[in-house]
Amino acid sequence: MRKIILNEKDMPDFYYNVQVDLPEPLLPPLHPVTREPIKADDLKPIFPQSLIKQETSDEREIEIPKKVRDKYLSYRPTPLIRALALEEYLNTPARIYYKHEGISPAGSHKLNTAIPQAYFNSIEGIRSLTTETGAGQWGSALSMACSFFNLKCKVFMVKASFEQKPYRRILMELFDAQVLPSPSSTTESGRKTLETDPNSPGSLGIAISEAVEEAVKNPDTNYALGSVLNHVLLHQSIIGLEVKKQLKLADESPEILIGCVGGGSNFGGLIAPFVKKKIKNNQIRLIAVEPSVAASLTKGIFEYDYGDTMGFTPLLAMYTLGHNFVPPPIHAGGLRYHGMAPIISNLYKNKIIEACSYDQKSIFEAARIFAKTEGITPAPESAHAIKKAIDEALIAKEEKKERTIVFLLSGHGYLDLSAYEKNREIN
């Protein structure tokens, strides 16, 4: 079976809350000033009550509102595709499947959380959302979702990506978003950064500081985050829920699930419904793939740290490279983050998931192989998962063992062609 496609009626009508399956409870976020555990009221200046409730929920299943489902149906369920041409090229006995989230109107998995975040803010009377974006996938998704629910949108785009990826900015502006390169001169956070380093390439941590500052200053504005937080991974669980149904249709039992990680949202969404099985019988491998220049899991330490550079956000218990860490510019801008989602950090600390990292050259080589065999140009972020899937398929070949490998193609790379061109020039 080449493509496993679910009917619209088979799209999940609930999100899966993996928090209930964690081997140990998450440590509480701490207030950035008092360093005491955060109370729900502390989050009200930047988040709607419904998302605050989801952030701390202990319910396994959380219903997807009808208006959110209606928007999802423009592109969901997404296909699970057998990579037969890639298998033939590698001459491997492994069966390789990829979940294609790049077919969403925004071009990536980010719309899965942008839609509910915009919806929940709109029904609570918020008029504007502010956010950060690295490669522009999250900014594009939130800009689109805000237009669905008549919200204004301001996006602080990491300057390195702002300069590398003009078409992402154009897409955001198409949906009437205001897009600013971060660090910018419009916020105190941005000005402080520019005073220290006028040529700063920016980072997600800096852009988060600017976006949170903007939200706190304006009572009709909230902040939206595209990764890291529990409610974001909750919304992304729709990916794994669909994969579980699709694999059942294909009569497959996955042995390896792979996703790229920056903050952890797409990987968390893929593996959420499989964590319980992993803990119970340990027969499945869940592998997170990082860029070597921002490898918070494999090179960071587990401790409380701020989610942003300026220390505006709550302190989260996570693997981190330090909130002042500014990674060098890479084309996988969506993965240039200093920390990892608390849920993913919890799973890694307890050895439920694995992690590895690759350099930029090797992931572009994998991306080219995938493009030439499967005919899809992947986002540089997604190419990290492709690289690991290829490596695992080659191990299966060496061992002469069949193996079922599933990776998440989190987004397409058609707005990243300049990155491919520059990488080719370098090599």
TrEMBL record:
Pfam families referenced in this protein's UniProt entry, alphabetically: PALP (PF00291)
The UniProt record lists the keyword Transport: no
Cofactor: pyridoxal 5'-phosphate
Residue ranges, annotated region (Disordered): 181-202
Modified residues (N6-(pyridoxal phosphate)lysine): K110
Pathway stated in the Swiss-Prot or TrEMBL entry: Amino-acid biosynthesis; L-tryptophan biosynthesis; L-tryptophan from chorismate: step 5/5
Signal peptide from the UniProt entry: none
Reaction catalysed by this enzyme: (1S,2R)-1-C-(indol-3-yl)glycerol 3-phosphate + L-serine = D-glyceraldehyde 3-phosphate + L-tryptophan + H2O
GO cellular component: cytoplasm
UniProt keyword list: Amino-acid biosynthesis, Aromatic amino acid biosynthesis, Lyase, Pyridoxal phosphate, Tryptophan biosynthesis
EC numbers on record: 4.2.1.20
GO molecular function: L-serine hydro-lyase (adding indole, L-tryptophan-forming) activity; pyridoxal phosphate binding; tryptophan synthase activity
Annotated Tryptophan synthase beta chain-like PALP domain residues: 74-411
Enzyme class label: lyase
Binding partners and assembly: Tetramer of two alpha and two beta chains.
Protein family (similarity comment): Belongs to the TrpB family.
Protein's job: The beta subunit is responsible for the synthesis of L-tryptophan from indole and L-serine.
Protein name listed in UniProt: Tryptophan synthase beta chain
Source organism of this protein record: Thermodesulfobium acidiphilum
Lineage of the species this protein comes from: Bacteria, Pseudomonadati, Thermodesulfobiota, Thermodesulfobiia, Thermodesulfobiales
